[in-house]
Each structure stands twice: as C-alpha cells, then as structure tokens.
Amino acid sequence: MTESIEKPTGTSNGSDRHISGVEIDLRDVVKKYPGQKTAAVESLSLTVPAGEVVMFIGPSGCGKTTSLKMINRLIEPTSGTITIGGEDVRGRDADELRRTIGYVIQGGSLFPHLTVADNIAVVPKLLKWSKQRTADRVEELLDLVGLEPGRYRDRYPRELSGGQQQRVGVARGLAADPPVVLMDEPFGAVDPITRQRLQDEMLGIQRELGKTIVCVTHDIDEAIKLGDRILILSEGAHVEQYDTPENVLAAPANDFVADFVGAGSTLKQLSLSRVDELQMLPWTTARVGDDAAEAVRRAEAAGHDCVVVLDARNRPIAWPWLRNLRRGGAIDIARRDELITLDQRATLNDALDTMLSSSHAGAIVTDARDNYVGVVDFESVTTHIRSQEASAKEAQQARADGTAS
Ligand code: ADP
Q1: What are the chain's domains?
Q2: CA end-to-end span of the chain
C-alpha cells in the first residue's frame, strides 16, 4: 500500500481507489414500532454509493440505529424498499443475508467463552469454510487490525483491553469479506487516544478494501474524520443534510445542521486536515546500540533537546531527553508501550490532542506500518492552518475578481 497525501475522503470516486463494496439504496423506508404514535423512521430515502463510508449522525432517538438495522433486517421495515447491490433485501433469507453483511457494534460484543480466533471465525464456520481457509483468514484479519496472531489468537475476550476487543470486533465484521459493513458506535467504548488509533486503522483498512460502510456515531468529529459523506438526521429519521464533510462544514443546509455541527466549525476544519499534510521536522534519531555520546553531539548541533530512538525495524521506541543520554555508552532502551505516537492518517484535531498529552509539546509521526516518519509540533499545525487560510482567501479574492470583471 502506498501512502498518498490525498485525503481518502470526499469525491474519491473516479480515482483509482479499489472498491469491493456495492451500493445500498433505501426508498421511502418507514418503521413504526408497535404501540408507537409517531414512526421512528418516517420516510427515509437514501443512496449510499459503492465503496463509500457514510456516517449517520443526529440527536439521540432520531432513528439512526433503527435505520441501520433495517439494512441487515435485524429490524423489519413497516414499508418501503431496501436494496443492496440492486437486490431487494426482502427477497433473501434474513439469516443468509446477515452472513453477507459485516456488523460491528460498540465494545465488539465478543462471545466471552470463545477464543479470539473462534470469535472471528463465527461467520466463516456458518458458511462451512474449511479449517485451513478459516485459520488463514483469522491470521490475515488479526494482522490487518494490528494484533499479532501468535500472541492473541488463543486468548479469551476477558484477557484483552477494550481497544483490543474492539479490534477483534472489527476483524469479525470483516471475516467473510462482506461488501457491506454496518457499524453502530463502534469506537464509543474506548478512551480518546485508543479511539483515535482505531479510527486511523479503520481508514487504512478502508483505503485497502473499499467496502461500503454505514456507521452510526454521536461524535461530529468522528463523522467528519471517517465519512465520505455525512447523513444528518432529526427526529423521525428526517434528512436534514446529506453531503461531504467539507460541504456540511462550509455550507450547513439549515439552522438545525448549523447548531448540530456547532459554533466551532473553524476548529472542526482541523478534523478535515491530516497529519500527512504537515511539514515534518527532521529530528535527530538514533538506533538502539548506537553510541549515546555521539547521538547527544548530533542533537546539540541540530538544536534538539531530545532524540528519537528507533529499533532495527525503524519503529520509534523512545524519545529520551539528552540529560538521560549523557551517561554515555551504547543506547540501551527496551520498547516502551507507553510511547504515544501519531499516525500519519490522524487529523490535526487528533494531533493537538496527542501533543497536549505529551511532555515534549510535539509528537512522533509514524506510517501505517509503525515506521518513523518525522516529528510535528504545535507550530507545524499553526503554520499549516495559516497557509490554508491564506490560500482560501486568495481563492475567494480570485472569485471576487472574476465576477467583477
Ligand atoms: P437513535 O439510534 O437515533 O438513538 P433509535 O433508532 O434507537 O434512535 O430509536 C428511534 C425511536 O424509536 C426512539 O424514539 C426509540 O425510543 C424508539 N424505539 C427504538 N427501538 C424500539 C423498540 N424496539 N420498540 C419501540 N420503540 C423503539
């Protein structure tokens, strides 16, 4: 996979991005629960293009989850038509349909009595895949979601952190390689830094696989970050706006959307820009085993007060201050789990979060394979924002000049 500077969102159709997803279409879909006075979903019509991520967002009780669950028939619509890849979902056996649609919910909802491997293999087993094919697929998926197969395959859910359980949940949703994946607040139950990582991984996976993904969220920043399009709903699953994150921020369709997106929409622009758009600061690096005194000399010459230490595979493992290296000898540091790095695919919003929690007022940036890319600091972010503002002004001026002449 090659990293590109291009955002994976927005008008990505027409690019050479690989698409394995299919279109989902909802026409005049209504859901009235028994005994309910007004319908939970009044009349929803919507096309989710193949290979895109659509984020459903809106106030609690507006009908997001009901709408999502009608797509895989966990809830049956009262009326209306839903097609997936042009095929009416009612024409299919509901159980068989659900095996062809990935489903990921908050916390992963793993079976506690099954190992990680068996949890992931639930659908392949129902589909009667051979033992070998299933085992190979489990390995592949654990790799994909960043869990080392040898270490995690045979563990039970209780032996995993919340973030790891959620990763297994994502792997399970992808197990049978479904063209469509439905997600309901998938990252709602984990801490902010883990959530950021999981989101970045989901973007990486999506860039590789090109599924059609419908995802319910209550977090507007998450919707902006992950969505090719955002569907903003009000009560009764009434569509207030359905558009790209850029357009929702730049031109909210009405007061409801403007209120929902929030007054800080300039700040929300930070969720539209990615770390890989920033100018990286070339930092002094050293490898485990290098001479500490020599590394200190290089850092001092470059005006740096700390050194990024990389392992043999070029992964950052520590970021010690020079005073901790002055003892001399060979640099001898074990991999530190608590070193927080910033994924290239993260948003500038995430970058600020990460930097605020770091004692270095900066962050080490890594690529999708955890390899070292560079360092960014607050100034990298402000410089980038200023240059964006300047080019937006220029574009505005050019448009004004154009209309004047
Ligand atoms: P959201 O996901 O946006 O929070 P839901 O789709 O869960 O909203 O719910 C939409 C409306 O339908 C709410 O008013 C909710 O109380 C109602 N509702 C949801 N599930 C049921 C159910 N099983 N029976 C009756 N009413 C329900």
Answers
A1: 24-262 (3.40.50.300), 276-382 (3.10.580.10)
A2: 47
